[in-house]
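Students often ask what a holo structure prediction actually looks like on paper. The answer is less mysterious than it sounds. You provide the chain, you provide the ligand, and the output is a string of discrete structure tokens encoding the 3D arrangement of the protein together with adenine.
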Amino acid sequence: RTVSQQVGLEMVMETDLWEMPRDQVIVKRDIKLGNGVYGEVFKGVIIGKAPIEEVYKTAFFAHQYDDCECAVKMLHSYAEANSRAEFLQEIGFMKELGFHPNIANMLGCITVSTPMCLLLEYAHYGDMARFLRERKDRVTTAPRLSSPAERAASNDDSVSIKDLLSFCWQISDGMEYLTELGFVHRDLAARNVLVDKAMNAMIGDFGLCRKADNVAFTSKAGRLPIKWMAIESLKSYQFSTKSDVWSFGVLMFEIFSMGMVPYIDVPQTEMLSYLCAGKRLPRPKNASLDIYDIMQSCWKERAADRPSFNSLRERLARHLEDAT
Ligand code: ADE
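The corresponding structure tokens follow.
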């Protein structure tokens, strides 16, 4: 390798605004947030300015991420080459993603030394499936207090139907954004949505995410989320924005049932014949007929008959306006 090539490489690394020094991150190894396929997620703190502020240098970002909490997704230092490649691919996607309020945004990363780290916005309430299950006996029809501060002050830990609608709307907004950028998520499910302190829903886990033009999706069979998959994905591993819409319908079922496991009585191996027979998930008790109609529209057998995320978002917005 010549000197000039080496200098070139260093320049590339230096100009990657996302990279951060390891000593700027405190990893709280005693607070484990999750287990990834190729590593672990811990709670952490970023000292000083997070790289995201440099990357999106606008007034909006001015002081938002100083000394902030974060989630540190860490790759085992002994990870195999293909896990490492997938981890770097996920970081690459996060860089392309840009900022959206309903995505667990990347705050920075460490890839020039091991263990490699992906730092994400911290979500106080953790994953949505658990959030809902813990509150399944505390659903109210009254709209919740407006501000998170008011809520904290009154120790109000209930969830209103309007909150559930708002979660759905926020996720549809984030998915519309992802779709516009040409991404197919492929693993949209309540376990992969996070809830932050202000009750914002944030789409997380881009481990299975792909560019829509990259249709040659091959995946280790064991990792596929069978009960969230569209008919055509189960039949022939076809994934698209429309199969994400199917998963969104299942996610709406999870939300309105307060975290019920979909098709609890159906073995995974029987899912395809179950769906081909025209059977679908039932209406959760918190869902009105029209909300259930939205879910069902996501489960049309023909992908082309399913709505777009844009029309889902608009339809949900109308419900949100009506909900008092
Ligand atoms: N678990 C996985 N990612 C997380 C995050 N960003 N915040 C909180 N818990 C998480």
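The pocket of adenine is lined by residues 33-34, 41, 71, 104, 120-123, 126, 194, 204 (CB under 6 Å).
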